[in-house]
């Protein structure tokens, strides 16, 4: 295998990919099966079973399109046959970058059924991230929209394909031009498709929100991820009467599995896809489809709360509003029931595993002031100090965890076995297999978690995680930048925004110039700093490292004492 920084000329085999995905120790695999957590059902087989159970019951609503369970299953089969006709086979990696649309759901299950491995990218990602995912996983295909949010994904895909010979196909939903049209792939023949994968096999890759570099690939298997759905369906009381509005980007772990579109389908409910999470569009869908549940990040929840009193929409069907991705302050939490007329469920989880919920029948003050407790009785949670010693109940410490749906390690990218991802795995997981979440929390006597914040080198911008190191590395490529340090700045709306402190060589560039430079390099918009501060030197710690604590203090002082100075990008 070649180094991850060079163009790949030969695609990695499935065995090579599997070897780079850490697996659970044998004793834990045995324990989770013995406890009944892991069942022998793949996602492809799950949908086939659901189609037989629910038949014509509506599974999915996308605009005017309404698909029943049986019809959804048939479309999945037709697309799986078409993908197979193009050469996509078991173990092939396919990067999916689509907005909320029925094609996303169909493509997921078609790839599951073939045993191919989706990599779930976000619509906000740009060339820098997408090329990285395609490169390190030696992806065979990229599935994109033609345009979304004013961005032409086809131009990006062409540029990536020129760099990566292993990326054989670009499949486009919409106007494909010379690329492969998604709609042309459906094969309506009756040729049967066998469920190729096994429950213990890899199912897909999600993306980390880690503190270093671009997102890492999170390998998920059918059995462990399906168990997370089972527990989420229970915790969220999903039934065939549930109508779930997918308002957040569907490729996020939260609207995918907590309970998300996969959990709602497992529970026999109905999915309604919102093209955007704006109150006007979502309120209209809630009224039209009699939506009972949806999920938001805190900034969107605040926007909905401000908009609802003036919207004039009938939101009476809405029973549960889930809020997660970042901490919802208690003052905002207390507004949900009186403003939207529904129950609040706080959700705190991560794509790597552990998910916490407040109970639907918990006392209201507990719901308003905590981020829930682990959903599985087999989740192991510890709150520890800097030396991994337990912190007393009520004390703030680092959250570490392991359990039947928390991964044992990140995908180890080619060329990074020793110096890169393998070393990162040794830092991110304890010798006992506990995952270091990077969250600082306190644990209540009843086992509920109160989130106090993140480790300082990661910025949580309204639920989107930004790695400081990644942005710093991109800034250093600018000829006028000598050094850079990226930190979080407090924000009442998003929780945190991105600020870059910069040491320059020569003339000081304009903030807007640096922002344009980062976008031109393919950095996602949400990662581009919204404020730049230019210094002559960085403050240092006692051992000579950049003191980001001092930078954050400087930022707080400047932000509140000199707001008229406009260093915004």
From TrEMBL:
- What does the record give as its pathway? Siderophore biosynthesis
What PROSITE patterns would the database entry show? AMP_BINDING
Cross-referenced InterPro entries: AMP-bd_C, AMP-bd_C_sf, AMP-binding_CS, AMP-dep_synth/lig_dom, ATP-dep_AMP-bd_enzyme, DHB_AMP_lig
Where is the AMP-dependent synthetase/ligase domain positioned along the sequence? 48-411
What keywords are assigned to this protein? Ligase
Q: Does the keyword Ligase apply?
A: yes
Keyword Cell membrane found = no
Q: In this protein, which residues make up the domain named AMP-binding enzyme C-terminal?
A: 470-545
**Coiled-coil features, chain-numbered ranges:** none
What is the name of the protein in this document? (2,3-dihydroxybenzoyl)adenylate synthase
Q: Which organism is it from?
A: Kushneria aurantia
């Amino acid at each position: 295998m070649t180094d991850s920084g060079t163009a790949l000329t030969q695609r990695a085999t499935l065995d090579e990919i599997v070897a780079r995905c850490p697996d659970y120790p044998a004793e834990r695999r045995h324990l989770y099966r013995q406890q009944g957590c892991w069942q022998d059902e793949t996602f492809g087989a799950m949908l086939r079973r659901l189609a037989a159970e629910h038949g014509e019951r509506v599974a999915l609503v996308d605009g005017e399109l309404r698909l029943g369970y049986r019809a959804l299953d048939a479309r999945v089969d037709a697309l799986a046959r078409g993908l197979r006709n193009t050469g996509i086979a078991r173990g092939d990696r396919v990067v999916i970058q689509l907005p909320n649309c029925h094609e996303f759901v169909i493509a997921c299950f078609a790839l599951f059924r073939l045993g191919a491995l989706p990599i779930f990218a976000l619509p906000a990602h740009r060339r820098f991230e997408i090329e990285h995912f395609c490169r390190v996983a030696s992806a065979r295909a990229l599935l994109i929209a033609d345009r979304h949010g004013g961005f032409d994904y086809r131009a990006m895909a062409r540029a990536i394909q020129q760099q990566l010979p292993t990326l054989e196909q670009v499949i486009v939903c919409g106007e494909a031009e010379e690329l492969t049209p998604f709609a042309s792939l459906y094969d309506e023949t009756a040729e049967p498709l066998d469920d190729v994968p096994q429950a213990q096999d890899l199912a897909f890759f999600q993306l980390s929100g880690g503190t270093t570099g671009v997102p890492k690939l999170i390998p998920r298997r059918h059995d462990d991820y399906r168990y997370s759905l089972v527990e989420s369906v229970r915790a969220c009381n999903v039934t065939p009467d549930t109508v779930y509005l997918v308002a957040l980007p569907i490729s996020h772990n939260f609207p995918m599995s907590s309970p998300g579109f996969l959990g709602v389908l497992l529970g026999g409910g109905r999915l309604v896809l919102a093209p955007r999470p704006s109150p006007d569009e979502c309120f209209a869908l809630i009224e039209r489809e009699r939506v009972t549940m949806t999920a938001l990040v805190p900034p969107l929840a605040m926007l909905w709360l401000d908009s609802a009193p003036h919207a004039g929409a009938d939101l009476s069907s809405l029973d549960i509003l889930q809020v997660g991705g970042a901490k919802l302050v208690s003052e905002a939490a207390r507004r949900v029931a009186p403003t939207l007329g529904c129950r609040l469920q706080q959700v705190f989880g991560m794509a790597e595993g552990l998910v916490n919920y407040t109970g639907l029948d918990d006392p209201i003050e507990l719901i308003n002031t905590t981020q829930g407790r682990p959903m599985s009785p087999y989740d192991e949670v510890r709150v520890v100090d800097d030396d991994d010693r337990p912190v007393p109940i009520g004390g703030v410490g680092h959250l570490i965890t392991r359990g039947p749906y928390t991964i044992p390690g990140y995908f180890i990218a080619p060329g990074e076995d020793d110096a890169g991802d393998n070393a990162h795995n040794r830092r991110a997981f304890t010798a006992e297999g506990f995952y270091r979440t990077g969250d600082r929390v306190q644990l209540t006597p009843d086992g509920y978690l109160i989130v106090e914040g993140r480790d300082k080198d990661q910025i949580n911008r309204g639920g989107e995680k930004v790695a400081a190191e990644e942005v710093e590395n991109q800034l250093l490529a600018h000829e006028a930048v000598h050094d850079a340090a990226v930190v979080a700045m407090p924000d009442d709306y998003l929780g945190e925004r991105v600020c870059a402190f910069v040491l320059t060589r020569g003339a000081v560039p304009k903030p807007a110039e640096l922002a344009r430079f980062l976008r031109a390099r393919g950095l996602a918009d949400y990662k581009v700093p919204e404020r730049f501060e230019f210094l002559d030197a960085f403050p240092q710690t006692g051992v000579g490292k950049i003191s980001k604590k001092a930078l954050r203090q400087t930022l707080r002082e400047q932000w509140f004492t000199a707001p008229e100075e406009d260093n915004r990008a």
